[in-house]
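Example with several molecule types.
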Amino acid sequence: MAVPIRVEHLNAAFGPFQALHDVTLTLPARQVTAIIGPSGCGKSTFVRCINRMHEETPGGRVWGQIYLGDEPVYGPDVDPVVIRRRVGMVFQRPTPFPTMSILENVVAGYTLLPGRPRDLESLAERSLRQAGLWDEVKDRLRDSPLNLSGGQQQRLCIARALAVEPEVILLDEPCSSLDPISTAKVEETIMELAQRYTVVLVTHNIQQATRVSQHTAFFLLGRLIEFGPTEQLFTNPANEQTEAYITGRFG
Amino acid sequence: MSQEPLAATHLPLSRWGISRRQLEGRIRRRRWADRIIRGLMVASVVVVLIPLFSLLIYVGRSGIQGLDLAFFTQLPKPVGMPGGGMANAIVGSLILVGLAAAIGVPVGVMAGVFLARSTSRLADGVRFVAQVLNGVPSIVVGLAVYGLMVVPMQTYSAWAGGVALALIMIPLVTLNTEEMVRLVPRDLNEAALALGVPAWLATLRVVVRTALPGILTGIMLALARVAGETAPLLFTALNNAFWHQGLSNPIASLPVTIYNYAISPYPEWHQKAWTGALVLVAMVLITNVLARFFGRSRYDRR
Amino acid sequence: MNQPLHHPTRVVNRGDRLFRGILRLFGLVVLAIALLILVELWEVARPSVERFGLRFLIETQWDPVREQFGALPFVYGTLVSSLIAILLAVPLGLGVAFFLSEMAPRWLREPVSFLVELLAAIPSVVYGLWGLFVLVPIIRSLELAILRTGLSRVPLFSGAPYGIGMLSAGVVLAIMIVPTVAAVSREVFRAVPDSQREAALALGATRWEAMKVVFDYGRPGIVGAVVLAWGRALGETMAVNMVIGNQPIISASLFSPAHTMASVIASEFNEAVEPMHVAALAEIGLALLGLTLLLSALARLLVLRVERRSRGRQAAQGVTSP
Ligand SMILES: Nc1ncnc2c1ncn2[C@@H]1O[C@H](COP(=O)(O)OP(=O)(O)OP(=O)(O)O)[C@@H](O)[C@H]1O
Ligand SMILES: [Mg+2]
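Resulting structure tokens for the full complex:
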């Protein structure tokens, strides 16, 4: 099910401004890969290229190629909608759909499409369990998600992404608006996910990267500076810019 | 409450070449000016609300005298005959507003969604034109619809009246819909897209759905507004002393009937006009309050 | 560069393309409506435009029976009645806006602004009814009182105190456009950054003096509000028609009956049998449309200017603050 993501000579731009320059790396399957780097270095842009969200930004352009397993993500006959079914995404701020109940949110990936799939309740339960939220919400599935805490909302969004059974999960700073306890819960969830999915985690928090990821990629000014096993990258970085960043000399 | 100007006590007055007496006098004068101006502001609110209350009281008091069941169930009687009602006009107004809604709501909502979702030149042009249309006097719209429909059909008709009202509704609904859709955070749209939902479904089922309360409020306010319009109906729907005879014939409406009765020389008809006004105002105000109750979009700044 | 280039010739979901096409279509419908209004009005008015041209607007005789069509009395009535309305409504509307945005305690704000908005929700014909039976008698006694003071030698106050006439029309219009002035100016005041107010207060200004700063800052917006309200007043039909007396007279007196462009269309269009009479009325409509378009374009420009300016400043502040 889970597939590696091969990124080859990926470039991305907002109109005239090029935000990613020639990025090449392979994100291994069934692992958490952390993306770190100072603000504005292109982390979000990078993950948004993987599920073809970048082109939804006005002026957004992409060139280069990405493969999910062996299949290209970009190409004249690739439907972005299909890619997005295979690559789930969780955003920095929790984005529950305010007009839907908790339950409806989880299965929104199905109900928003035409047709009536069956057995959504058990699917919802499974996804909520995977996201570690089931016990907290099982008695109020019909409530508005807006009554949940920020951390619960974020895990609801994770459950919603899981419900469509993707192969890859992209998490763009999922904990940056959460308190420490919620963060710990979400991190636990992320580690669980790595057993079944290819997980890409954008984070500003170096401790978080060391806690949950097996590989780390360091970006600077739109370029991939260093990529390797997390432990190695943090204890013995090959590049001095990486070292400068992780020892807190910029960021 | 009021912010006091600086106290005069510790200032190096000599440097400014004025005595303490002069300075204190000046401050006192400023303080008085402040009070007077503030009084005037309160007064302007009172002056503005007096006509409102006067109007509501007169419409209520005079209107209620003729208010009975017959008013809602019977046709108007000729002058001199007691009794009768405005049932045909009430029904006619409902039909006209219904026609206007049937035409104006889909066009207005879709055009509004278009404006909110498109960044093209065309969208800028459409927005500008909608704003301009919003300022076009309703009587002018009536004239245009006269040329558009009454002349070719060779008859005044409910259709023409409904179209005239729809044309007045459309810019209102369009601009409000755009505003409400724009208030929905982009994040929600992106979240839906990231789930693998096609853009058009994300737009309709997430973004528009989220903006729906605000869109409905705007629709209701627009309906209330056109329900009270008289001028565009004068030479489109015209009037009719009887029950409506199909949409291709002239049709009575509450505002036009009120107008005709009000400018007639007969006191009984004046009474009827007041009662009609009471019904019309009640309809319009209830719609307004309901619209507010439905609430604006949850992302509205208010 | 030797990488495989991907050009964004992405497959757009067929539903998306269809949906976008449909939305565009509805956008075009709005354009078509505007065009249609213009074309139809032009069509109805054409005989008159061709025969009289613009001269029509400065001729003073209106006598359909003798085929004399001079629209100046209506233009005059429209301009003067709306001018009276503006003179009354602008100070009141600004006062209300000031009260709501700078003075009123929170609990009072909602109900007062609701009531002022109600003023805008009441149908024109109901204003006309109230104007005819409540306001006109009041204006009549006011006129009598003025005449008794001997001011009747002033042309502005000469003539018989009918009640019905220019003054009543101006007052009704003023009531009807106050909400517009108030609402737009309130938005303008709201767009004034707090820093402007606070700077003035910090310098020891009284509230009113601080507010002068606000007025100053928002002046183009306020002018925009006035122009917008003026546009409303020009096109207002029924209420004016019911209290102005409907006579094509050009008189310096406020007490004199008069007629407006919108009002004459409402009263005469259905009775007009001569084709030229119909066309002449439509040409008045065309002129009215031109007038309001001019004003609304002007208003939009002015309001936009303030909005853009305040947005620019907020953005500038956003950059420097974390
Ligand atoms: N919509 C946009 N239009 C133009 N430029 C943009 C846009 N979004 C981002 N950028 C630019 O692209 C670059 C990369 O942005 P990106 O959001 O990927 O950074 P990031 O690493 O995710 O930063 P952060 O840690 O703050 O989230 C930045 O320099 C940013 O200014
Ligand atoms: Mg980011």
